Write a sequence for this structure.
């Protein structure tokens, strides 16, 4: 019953967050503002789970803190990234030229709200369960460690890319330095690590395994649906990109190969 309350409250809150963001996007004339709402939605769900949950207080607060730090940084990064710019080519392609309200809501906002709710199920379920058993504490520690690695890859990768693009001498060049020499998508890889780490933190018994599809779905989004593969479609044909791909791992970091 507690999980049902959290799940329904989370759905209602996400409807408000993404509905409001749609109206803001409609006014601005660009819908990439949903990228800001992506992080905000996770913070809202984690807060609802922490407040309404009747499970272990320590894990509820821990998950709220981990989700809040990750999502807060991501949302602020997206604010800076999209400020003063037009529509993201990914969303322009996804909409296929149809910018009617119903089409935009279905193709972008409803899907992202539903994905946020589903991906955050480990946080919701964990808020209803008892303390982490002693035997599973190493799993919790491993989860926090993977989360730290993920946030580091995201934050450092985004910072390196932002500095690279801020230099006029790099205009039109392919970013192939720092973490970007080890993986073509350090930010997406980091995002995936964050959610696998959060899933491990949420585990406190066999019942927790039912939420394993949540990080799987997040990883699918990051690699295929709206992440790495789609980004590379827009980069295909750029000078130096094919050579960059030939020596740099696609997703999982690995030492650069010889050119």
């Amino acid at each position: 019953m507690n999980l049902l309350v959290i799940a329904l409250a989370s759905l209602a809150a996400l409807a408000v967050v993404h509905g409001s963001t749609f109206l803001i996007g409609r006014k601005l004339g660009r819908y990439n503002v949903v990228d800001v709402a992506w992080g905000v939605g996770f913070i809202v769900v984690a807060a609802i789970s922490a407040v309404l949950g009747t499970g272990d207080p320590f894990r509820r607060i821990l998950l709220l803190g981990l989700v809040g730090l990750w999502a807060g940084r991501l949302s602020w990064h997206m604010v800076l990234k999209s400020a003063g710019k037009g529509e993201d080519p990914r969303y322009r392609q996804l909409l296929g030229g149809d910018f009617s309200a119903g089409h935009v809501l279905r193709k972008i906002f409803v899907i992202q709200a539903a994905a946020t709710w589903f991906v955050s199920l480990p946080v919701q379920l964990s808020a209803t369960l008892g303390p982490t058993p002693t035997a599973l504490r190493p799993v919790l520690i491993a989860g926090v460690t993977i989360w730290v690695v993920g946030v580091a890859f995201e934050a450092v990768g985004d910072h390196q890319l932002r500095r690279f693009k801020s230099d006029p001498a790099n205009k039109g060049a392919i970013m192939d330095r720092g973490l970007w020499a080890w993986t073509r998508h350090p930010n997406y890889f980091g995002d995936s690590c964050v959610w696998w780490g959060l899933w491990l933190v949420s585990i406190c018994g066999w019942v927790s395994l039912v939420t394993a599809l949540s990080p799987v779905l997040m990883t699918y989004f990051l690699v295929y649906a709206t992440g790495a593969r789609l980004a590379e479609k827009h980069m295909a044909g750029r000078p130096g990109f094919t050579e960059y791909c030939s020596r740099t791992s696609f997703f999982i970091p690995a030492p650069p190969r010889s050119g």
